Amino acid sequence: MNPYQKKRRWKFFLLIFAILIGIASVFYTDSFVKKMEREEADQFHLWVRIQERAMFLYDNDDYRDVVETVRTNTKTPVIMTDSTGMISSFFGLDSTKTNYPDSDPKLTYDSLYFVRQLRQMKAQHPPDEMNFLGKKFKAYYRDSFILTQLRYFPYIQMGVIFLFLLTAYAAFSSARRDEQDHVWVGLAKETAHQLGTPISSLMAWTELMKSKFDAEDDPLIAEMENDIKRLEIITDRFSKIGSKPILEDHTVYIVISDFIRYFKVRTSDKVKFSITGDEQVRAMLNVPLFDWVIENLLKNAANAIENEGSISINIIENLAKEQVFIDVTDTGKGIPRSKFDAVFQPGYTTRKRGWGLGLSLTKRIVENYHSGEIFVKDSEQGKGTTFRIILKSSLRYEPTTA
User: Model pTM?
Assistant: First the structure.
């Protein structure tokens, strides 16, 4: 199991754990809310019974204070209606909207407020009937403010936890990317530094061989010089990692054709190369780094071809979006659709001796240095794969007018 599969598995377990915590919190709070509902219902029924007997209990000095305390300290808003449905009295409502006219000029009396409150009470709980002085009344109530808050508390809690986890994940991911970038840059520059000395020695040795053996026109020496130049280009590539590369206007077809001429000589004869498409389209490129992109794609394509096969590159210009599409297609073993994104992750490889850094570096070069995009356009196992690179065209077109 590669490290990215392990990381996805841990993310899955943590997500399930967070969901279980959220569900447990919701269920616990829900049971607590139901318990409070029952207590409020019991208190309301007690309040109604005391209201029924209030007139008789007021005559007894021993109960008068108790009755008044119970009547005026209800925590739940209450509205009482008579037999015709008219509101006769209320308790616990908003005092700024229930003041009678002329009682206080700073306060208001909102008749629609009573209608809305009564409608809400009827929707929440059934009424409790009561008899008072021979008349029948109905008492309605709604949940207290604290109970209403408790209903939404677990969802608010889950939202805050989710926001915290999202922020923490973004912060840690950013820190991890910065750390990876520092590792990439340090490794690349150290590699470039280490390659410098042997390359200089190889250049000196080839010059010595040419002069000592009079081999100025020897094809083997010429090929050795080509490889040394290639090493110089690779060293230059590594030295550019971490620095802002200089982009210049180039014809894409020519850049890719030049690299294919060098690459196919060093690849099996069983792999055929072809390049088609628009030969005039141009883009802003850093040629050493862009050659690295093409090299990584061609190496992966060649490794995917087990026996005989072909690698084709098609260059397309999208005039509407002023973009350049570069499709690299092979006839190799293909990539499962579930791995389309994973192939660009550092360390992902299907080869026993592979490091899994080629496509990851390719993606960085295309996106970070060329402001482009690269992805697996299409793949079918046993038939082949197509990678697509999208670059910004350096050609600009003005719309024609009649």
Answer: 0.54
